[in-house]
Each structure stands twice: as C-alpha cells, then as structure tokens.
Design a protein that fits this description.
single chain; globular; alpha+beta; eight-stranded antiparallel β-sheet; 33 strands; 22% helix; 15 helices; Protein Transport Mog1p, Chain A
Length: 745
C-alpha cells in the first residue's frame, strides 16, 4: 500500500506486522465489530483469542531475494503464481513465505458437551441414552486429526507488491453436531491486509463465523481452491507527481528554506529533548531512529500583521506572525555491530519510543560510537515538513491527525514508494546539522548543589521557594517565556536543605506543571497550576504507553523515579529525578533565551562569575558560600511574584519558608572532613570511597553524605556528577569544520 518497510514481525496468531509492532491475538471488538489495527498488517488468518490456551501454534518462515535465491523451487513457484494472476511477466525482488500450523486447536463450548472436559455432562439422561458414548467417540476421532494450516506469501518487484494466501487442511477438533450455539465463534478471523493509513482490503469470507472450517474450499481468485492472490500496493508515479506539483504551487519562492538544525549524531539527538522520536526500526545490519523538532521555523510572515503577542522576541510570538512554517525531521543510523547487545535488545521489545530514548541515553553515554546523521534520501534521511496558515487565527501547531500533517506524510510515502525521492527532495529538502545549536544545561542535586547555565558551580541551602530560571526582558517584564521555580525543605539533621518541589511555566501556556515529592508514598506527584492532580510517577503516569500532554507540555516517565517535562512551544525541558531525601533537577534551555537569570545563573553572560543578584549587582569571581547564600536568597519568590508550585489545602507560601534559616557551609570543613561527619569515621570513609570510585572527589559529594547521614546520598551524588559531566561533554562535542579541504584525499 502506501508504506515501505525494512523489517517484519511474525505473530503466532496468523498475522505479519510491517510496522515493527508485536502482534497478539486479533484485537476484535465484538460490540462495535471493529478491529484496532496496529500499523501495516498482512494476515491470512488473524484469529480472535480462543476461550482456552490449548492452541499450539508452530510458525516457520523463509525470506528470499533475487540475488541469492532465484534458483530455488519456492522462488520459481511464487513467480509462476503471480504471473498466472497478472498475465504478464513478474520478476520478484523479495519473497517472504510464512507458514502456520495450529496443532490440537481444542475449543470448549457452552453446551452440555465439550471435548476439552472429556464430554462431562451433569444430566443422567445423556448417559442412559448413549449421548456420552457418542460424544467421546466423535471427540476421539476429531482430536486425532485436529489441525489448521495456512500460509502467506508477500512479494514485490520494482513497482508492485502482492500477497498470496494459501489455505490447507482445516480439521476442527469438535464436530458441529455437538455444538449447536455459536459453533465457530472462537474461530472468527481477519483475512486481508491494511497499511492502517489509506488502504484496507479483506477477502469476502473475512470475519464471518461460518467460514473458517473449510477455507481451502472457498473459490480462490487464482482459480485454485484455497489460494487467493491480492494486489497490496503499487508505486504510484502519478500520485507522487501530483503531490510534488501541488507542493510547488504552495511555495512562496522557487527555493524554499530547508532545515539545517538537526543534532550532530544520534547520541546528541537522544539527549536533546527538543527533538521527539517518531520512528525506531531495526534490520539485520543496523538500527535507524528518527526525531522531529517539536518547534517550528518561520519561512514567511504575513505581509501585514500587527500582533499583540508578548514578548514579541519569543519564538511563540514569531510563529503567530508566520504564514508558512518549517518543521525538522532528523534520522540516524548505527550499525548493529556498533550498537552492541544492549541496544539490540531494545529491538526485540515493544517499548514506547520515549522509553527507548531513555534507555539509549543511558547506554550511549558509555559508547564510543555515536550513530551518524543520514544525509541521503535513498538511505532514509529526514526531510523538511511545511505547513501553511491562511490567517493569524489559525492554529500554529499541527498535530498528527491534522489534515496538513497527514498530507506531508502521504507525500513522503507515495514518493518513496514510487522511487521519486530525488524529485521529492527538491520540494522537501533533506535536513542537515549545519546550523544546529545545542541547548545549554543547568543541573541541581543533593542538598542543593547547583551547576549554572554558564557552567559555574556552587552550593545554596536556603529554606523557601525560589526562581531557578527567571526569564526577564526590559521590553515586556510581565510576559516571561520561561519561569522555573523550586521549593526547598530541611533534610535530616536540619543543617541543610534539599529541593522537594519544582514548577515550570513557559511559552504561552496558560497552565504550569508542578512536581512535588510525596514523602509518605515515596513518589512524585504531578499537578497543573489550576489545582488538578495529573497523577504520580510510580502510579498513573507509569502505566501509560504514551506521553501525557498538558497544553504544549509533554510529560514522559522513563522510569519509576523520573519525569521529563518538555515544552514544545519554547524549546525547554526539565528532568526531575527522585533521590535520597531530595530531587535532582536538570534543565536544558534553548541558547536563544538570553534573558535567563535566577539561581541557575546567567545565560550568555560576560560577567566573571555569572552570579547576578535580583537587584542587578554581580558577585565577584571566587565568592564565598556565605556570599552565594546572599545571592540565592535574592531570588526568593516575593509577595508580588506568581507562584506556580502546588500547595496542599490550607497551606500557603509562608508555610514553606524560614527566612531566619542559616545552613552549614561546606567550605568551613575543607580541612576537617571528620568534623563534617560529626566524628562518624565509618560513614566518612565509606562515603569517601564511593565519591572517589565514581571519579569524583567533589566536596559536595561528601557534603551530601554527611548532611543526609547516608552512603546512598553519596552514591546519588556520584551518579549525578557523572551524568552532568557526560551531558556537558556530549552537548559541547561538535564535528570538525574544515575551512578548506582538498578535492581528493
């Protein structure tokens, strides 16, 4: 149909998936009489789950190609069958042959007898009149011959694809005479194919409860009983040509802007949350993964427009004034040998894409291979996607189900199927990484140690609610594009604090998202700023296969202690991880947000330290922890500030602040670490070993263990330090730029 696939999955239950999904029994809804198809499926006999588990499927397959197998008998048979059907020459490129044999397909029924329970009957009349003996005899003979077998062949040449369905013997284990009501209900099956986008075709007897006993006697399309040949797709040159002509007509200029902001490699794309994965496929020799930039670029503005959108410099406001938008698609490939066993295991699972991404992030940090950006259409590169707005009141975002989005997907599919990707690339250029700008990061851990957007580190132990990032501009001070706030609370011992809550409001979203640590349930609760509880990380959110959406926020739960909040409209992502008595917070921010300041420091600042107080004064380089304590408290939420953090019933901001709190300062114990641990040499030595073995001799690692009185806190700190270091290294890693190079090497 409209799709081309490099891989397939065979189900035990009579179906083949060409979209990478693992198929179970036929997902048939008997009430609505509908099937919830998953991706592209070819199915000779995809059956509804039987009432018991006595079915024993045995499946085998053979994958043939023209280069290696053209002399085999099965190859010649496939070629002959298709040529008889189309009455012309057919030279296949590939042929997939899958055979199913269902042994002892025992079926229980709701009447007085069934073979599974050895014809047990509660009525004495049955035994006296010979019904029991009759049942046992018939069941014995039926079981001896019980089997169902069928076959699917999927083949293609340069222009067309076909499916051949062959039905062999269908011997049911229970004769109809013993089953008066719903005799074949459990054998209802789908027979046909679908691409789950444009095309769905079924054989005439598909999903009929009276056909499955003898499908081999059904009149086949090829003239042979039990054989059916279906045309399941052709490379439609005319459809691709028409689509390209329409795309050119919509363009405002002869050469439309391309997309050049793809991350440099797969490892960077996995890390940069501004890019959302939409495809992950595996073949025998490589893996391929594709991402889409969740924000857009403006290709053309409306000729005359006055916008009240504020702040006018923000990406959201720029898009409001835009009539033609560009979205970026980036695809990457890595050889199976380079990917290794851990990544290969992901190919054998059916995890959600964002969970695959989380696993890749962990795995690829320790790999020397990073996966390359695909730059050729024929190899599966990502292309620009264009969207049009006729008026300023039209939506700026185009969801998966929007007509324009579906039209973009259709153009890619039909031109790929038609082999016209060179022509397609003229109107939808291949995306590159020429102008990619990595995000900048800020990191917070333990009893709070902060690493700023400008990569300065310090410790701050205030007890209140604070601005982590306060995006401010003189032009529109009341219209921030990013506000990230956090709440602290004392940790055990009371000499330090830790972050226990965080809230994000960004872009032009009306709502904010708040994540609060729940000590009683040892979980993270997620709220919206209108007071609604969205769920918990270990509860409702963990059970979802897809990301949760709130306005333009995307909420993802990669594991049972972490939540990612991504604002697709502002290019900002926040990761919150639950640790020993504290939260670890990571933020990635677009480098364009030059007005950012707060506890996470200044972005793009030329000041020596990057620590600017709220009143505008700047701390000198090498400031003490006590001076930095003053800096941190200057970013405390004031009464005039809107708070986006969640408050329990009857509680307010004052309940979470102690303005007289003075913490322990780690710098006072540089030369006397044992005193920092209160004389507990055992805890000190164990923590020191953990911090050192992780490659970190950071004082803050020891400080966390001392204040939280836990070696686990040192382990959390060591992991966080490694994670931060690796993240900064990956984001700073750029491919070499050659000013001049020889034409030949």
């Amino acid at each position: 149909a409209s799709q081309e696939s490099l891989s397939f999955r065979v189900s035990h239950y009579g179906a083949i998936s060409f979209s990478g999904y693992r198929l179970g029994y036929l997902p048939y809804n008997s009430t609505s009489a509908k099937i919830n198809f998953t991706g592209a499926v070819v199915a000779p006999y995809w059956f509804v789950k039987p009432a018991t588990n006595y079915w024993t499927p045995k499946v085998s397959y053979e994958l043939l190609n023209s280069r290696k197998h053209s002399t085999r008998s099965n190859w010649r048979a496939v070629k002959q069958i298709i040529e008889q059907e189309i009455r012309s020459k057919f030279n296949p490129l590939t042929a997939l042959i899958v055979t199913w044999r269902i042994l002892t397909p025992s079926l229980p029924y709701g009447n007085r007898f069934d073979c599974v329970s050895n014809c047990t009957s509660r009525q004495a009349w049955d035994e006296k009149n010979g019904w029991l003996d009759l049942c046992l005899g018939l069941c014995s003979r039926a079981k001896a011959n019980a089997s169902i077998e069928f076959q699917a062949v999927v083949t293609r040449n340069e222009t067309h694809s076909y499916a051949i369905f062959n039905y062999g013997d269908f011997h049911l284990p229970v004769p109809r005479i013993l089953n008066w009501s719903h005799p074949t209900l459990n054998l209802m099956a789908f027979s046909g194919f679908t691409d789950n986008v444009f095309v769905r075709k079924e054989l005439p007897f598909s999903l009929r409860p009276d056909w499955p006993e003898l499908p081999n006697l059904s009149p086949g399309s090829s003239g042979r009983p039990g054989r059916h040949v279906l045309s399941i797709g052709k490379r439609v040159l005319s459809e691709c040509g028409s689509w390209i002509a329409a795309a050119r007509a919509n363009q405002s200029r002869s050469v439309f802007p391309g997309c050049s902001d793809c991350p440099f490699d797969l490892r960077t794309a996995v890390l940069d949350k501004r890019y959302s994965p939409y495809e992950f496929e595996c073949s025998s020799d490589s893996i391929r993964m594709c991402f889409r930039n969740t924000s857009y670029h403006c290709a053309k503005e409306f000729s005359y427009m006055y916008s009240r959108c504020r702040p006018s410099y923000s990406l959201a406001c720029q898009l409001q004034k835009c009539s033609q938008l560009v979205s970026t698609s980036c695809c990457y490939r890595m050889s199976s040998a380079a990917a290794g066993s851990e990544i290969s295991q992901l190919c054998r699972r059916s995890d959600a894409l964002w969970k695959v991404r989380a696993a890749l992030r962990r795995i690829m940090f320790n790999m020397s291979f990073t996966g390359h950006l695909i730059n050729s259409s024929s190899d599966g590169a990502g292309h620009a996607m264009y969207f049009y707005r006729k008026r300023t009141t039209n939506r700026v975002r185009f969801g998966l189900r929007s007509q324009q989005y579906q039209n973009e997907l259709y153009g890619l599919r039909v031109c790929s199927a038609a082999g016209m990707m060179a022509a397609y690339s003229a109107v939808r250029p291949v995306c590159t990484s020429k102008n990619y700008q990595p995000p900048v990061g800020g990191f917070i851990r333990g009893d709070p140690h902060l690493s700023t957007l400008s990569n300065s580190s310090y410790t701050f132990n205030g007890h209140c609610e604070y601005h982590l990032i306060y995006n401010w501009c003189r032009c529109w001070p009341n219209s921030p594009t990013v506000r990230l706030q956090a709440r602290t609370a004392p940790v055990s011992g009371g000499a330090a604090t830790a972050f226990v809550g965080v809230a994000l409001k960004s872009g032009l979203n009306e709502l904010a998202v708040s994540v609060i640590r729940n000590e009683s349930s040892d979980d993270l609760d997620v709220f919206s700023s209108d007071g609604r509880r969205i769920g918990s990380v270990r509860g409702e959110l963990a059970a979802l296969n897809n990301a949760t959406r709130l306005d333009s926020y995307r909420l993802e739960v990669p594991d049972n202690s972490t939540i990612d909040i991504v604002d697709e409209s502002a290019g900002v992502s926040v990761t919150v991880t639950m640790e020993t008595s504290s939260l670890r917070i990571g933020v990635l921010l677009s480098n364009a947000e030059k007005c950012s300041r707060g506890l996470c420091g200044l972005l793009g600042n030329s000041d020596a330290s990057g620590f600017r107080l709220r009143n505008g004064s700047v701390l000198p380089a090498g400031s003490s922890e006590r001076q930095l304590f003053e800096f941190g408290n200057s970013w405390r939420l004031e009464s005039s500030d809107s708070s986006y953090l969640h408050y329990p019933a009857g509680k307010g901001r004052a309940d979470f602040c102690n303005l007289s709190f003075v913490p322990t300062f780690a710098e006072d114990f540089k030369d006397n670490m044992l005193a920092l641990f209160g004389g507990n040499a055992e805890l000190k030595n164990a923590s020191e070993e953990v911090c050192r073995s992780s490659g970190s001799s950071d004082l803050t690692c020891m400080f966390d263990a001392a204040q939280l009185r836990s070696v686990a806190a040192a382990q959390d700190a060591a992991v966080a330090i490694q994670d931060e270091t690796r993240t900064r290294v990956v984001l700073a890693n750029r491919p070499p730029q050659f000013v001049s190079a020889p034409s030949q090497l």
